[in-house]
Amino acid sequence: MPDKPNYFVRTLIVLFVLALFSMAFMSFYLAEPKYQITAGIITITGFVVILVLSESFNNLSLGKVLSLSREIQKKENEKEQVKTENKELRQELFKIVSNIQQSQVNNTFNAPSDEWLKLLGVVKAQDSDKEEEQEEQKEVQRAMEFMAEKEKAREESRARMKLRRNAELIAIEKYASNLAIPDSEIIQGAEFSQAFDDIDPIMNRRIVFDGYIKGASQERFIEVRPKAAIHPMYYDRLYVMLNKIFLYRQAKGISAELILIMLDIEGEESDRPWSNDRFYDYFQSAISNKLLKIESISISKEEMESYQPNGQQSLL
């Protein structure tokens, strides 16, 4: 049974609406300043609208309208959270499925099939394989021969250096024997002291002489050189030696000279593209000033091989 309308209440609402509307009208047209919409007019107009709408609906609540937006925002937040969780779950599920598939593939690949196991066995090597093996053996053999030749060349070089050193010592001993000088007065591997750096105004080049003999009135510096090694490139070194001996002689006021012993070694080639005449022409001044003296000594191969460092010949 429908409810009967309450005309008394409706009449009161109409009167109240008219009163509110009158106040808004007077505030808009009669108040100073005129025609200005104020906060009070807006409030009254809002009440009028609400009262009019209250007759159109069975239930009108402003709290419901205000809470609707908060409820929609809450639902949107929950929806976004659910989407994020679903995305993470899908990613984890994809990783698990991928790992399972990879594991299955690896197991399938690592596990040999029965057909492959049947084919696995030992067969006779083909001719091409034998040829490759022989070629590898040849390469190894060539490498070993190369190393052997290299070691042999190194040994021969050391042997030649030893014989050359023996030849130098023999030459110095023969020269000292010709002058009746005992071996104890010969200094091998001599050089000027550090104080000589103050004498030479040109360079501090270190020069080592093969021998040095100090006499009562004369000092002799010995340089031993094979005849085949007297070439134009050696002239510069010889010049430096003579210059240092000249400065040394002037500083101490003594007689000093360089004894250049040319070795004529048995078995070595004596043919050279340069002649000794040019050498003598270049250093004629040093020879005339008694700064350079040249001696020639012949040494046999037997002497070099039988020479002992202590100065004694080995008995054959």
Automatic annotation (TrEMBL):
The chain crosses the membrane at residues 7-29, 35-54. It comes from the Bacteria. Residues 65-99, 123-150 form a coiled coil. Keywords: Coiled coil, Membrane, Transmembrane, Transmembrane helix. This is Uncharacterized protein. It comes from Shewanella algae.
